[in-house]
Amino acid sequence: MSLKEVFGRRLDARRGSDQAFTSVEAGGPAVRAGWEDHPPRKGFFTDTSICIGCKACEVACKEWNGVPQDGIFELLGSSYDNTGALGASTWRHVEFIEQRKPLGGQTTGVTIGVPETAVGADVLLPDADSGSFGKTASSFGTAGAFDTIPGPVSGPDHSGIDLFGSLKPEPTATPEKPLVDLGMPAFDLPSASPDAGERTEFRWLMASNVCKHCTNAGCLDVCPTGALFRTEFGTVVVQDDVCNGCGYCVAGCPFGVIDRRIGDKHQPKDALANKNHGIAQKCTLCYDRLGEGLTPACAQACPTQSIQFGDVDELRERANVRLADLQAAGVAGAQLYAEDPDGGVGGAGAFFLLLDEPEVYGFPPDPIVTTADLPRMWKNAGFAALGFVAAVTTAFVGGRR
Predict the structure, then answer these.
(1) Helices in 33-84 by DSSP H: which ranges?
(2) 244 domain residue, yes or no
(3) Of 391, 284, 383, 329, which Cα lies nearest the Cα of 43?
(4) What's the domain count of the chain?
(5) b/e code 42-81 from CB counts within 10 Å (16+ = b)
(6) What is the pLDDT of residue 350?
(7) β-bridge mates for residue 93, sequence order
(8) Each residue of 58-96: pLDDT tens digit?
(9) Which of 127, 285, 348, 388 has a CA-to-CA distance to 113 between 20 and 30 Å?
(10) Does 229 map to a domain?
């Protein structure tokens, strides 16, 4: 009997025949989990192109699921993001990524590298007649008069100095292959770079990250107690009363989603901050709401429909239509992420439309279920053990002679 007949599923030719820990099949992951009569697989499609970063999803998730606060008073200092990443107490995380982007053929009329956020009364402005700096902002009266100031500013180039007064390093040579702007946190104003000529625009990339509810879920594969289980909706849920807090699932997730809740030792044991202390926690896709035919809290609260909930197959069709519309409109960087059933996790139940490379959003570019090679590893370990036993037996028999 072939491996395909044993597991009743479609194999991924890229990973060979040893795939006991994968569950890609036409009927969806619920069938592999033993659900015979199950509803269509449910999931999320997150369109990051219309996310406004309001964090309504974060608040709704915490309110409905009783998730403790985290990051409310711990501002990161480099972004509007105050939770940092997904975790045991952050089941929804809105990312704020600032990118420097050129304006193409548009001319801003500003030649200094650091953009001004306000014009003070003592700032010299260009004289329309002489083309030099001769008047101050106070000479023009109200702020509305600034709209008619003619000509580009031709003052000294301050792009080599940052806001804190320290000199910036000399620009390095441009590499042969262009680097991906990861949007990493920075404390400089946009375009405040040593080699900035004309002021460039910048953009915010916002995305509401969440558990992917993978078809091939590494966290589910490695759980030794059965605390993680596959629901009839194809989602992956943690049973709080079964989890022993071993943390195997934390290492088993290729996206770094699931984590153990640390709690707060300065608060009483029955405080919300210590709810499920030491237990692995993550998004459940509002399993209790699904059972009642309700939309998950985050999708219900999203004001722009950036988070869309529904049947996964229908969401994939919707995502492809949206992607085609954006690409036709000239958004070259638009791409879908984690929706491919032939991908390394067998297609996620929560997938995304991104406006840049996955690394920009902190996503692994080519995620693969961490247990994909376990069968092959166990087989190799078995052969090694047999070889060791044979060597010991041979040495023992030879010694008696």
Answers:
(1) 56-65
(2) yes
(3) 284
(4) 2
(5) bbbbbbbbebebbbbbbebbbebbebbebbeeeeeeebeb
(6) 96
(7) 209
(8) 999 999 999 988 866 667 776 778 888 899 999 999 998
(9) 127
(10) yes
- Looking at the fold, whether 288 and 252 belong to one and the same domain comes out as yes
* 311 and 335 assigned to the same domain: yes
- Torsion-angle region of residue 153: left (phi > 0), alpha (psi -120 to 50) or beta? beta
- Inter-residue contact 67 to 28 (CB < 8 Å): no
Q: Which residue spans within 38-179 are E strands per DSSP?
A: 42-47, 93-101, 124-126, 133-136
pLDDT in tens, 97-136: 887 765 344 444 444 343 343 334 444 444 444 444 444 4
Q: Is the pLDDT of residue 321 over 80?
A: yes
Residues 401 and 340 in one domain: no
Task: Report the 10 Å Cβ neighbour count for 117.
Answer: 6
Whole-model pTM: value is: 0.67
Tell me: do 389 and 315 sit in the same domain.
no
Confidence of residue 193 (pLDDT cuts 50, 70, 90): low
SS3 74: coil
User: What CA–CA distance (Å, rounded) separates 257 from 90?
Assistant: 9
Task: Give me the residues paired with residue 90 across strands.
Answer: 87
Q: In angstroms, rounded to a whole number, what is the distance separating the alpha carbons of residues 49 and 324?
A: 13
- Do 301 and 328 reside in the same domain of the chain? yes
For the ranges 162-166, 202-206, 210-214, the lowest mean pLDDT is seen at: 162-166
Residue 24 has pLDDT above 80, yes or no: no
240 and 337 belong to one structural domain: yes
* Domain region containing 17: 3-98+208-361
The token pair at 119 is: 């014009």
The reply to whether 367 falls in a domain is no
In a shared domain, residues 394 and 355: no
In a domain, 265, yes or no: yes
* Run of H or E residues at 229: strand 228-230
Contact 43, 234 (CB under 8 A): yes
CATH number of residue 314's parent domain:
3.30.70.20
The strand ranges marked E within 270-381 are 280-281, 307-311, 335-337, 350-354
Average pLDDT of span 249-274: 81
* H or E, element range at 238: strand 236-238
377 and 357 both lie in a single domain:
no
Q: Which of 6, 10, 3 is nearest to 24 (CA)?
A: 10
Count other C-beta atoms under 10 Å from residue 310's C-beta: 16
Closest Cα to residue 181, out of 96, 95, 98, 84?
A: 98
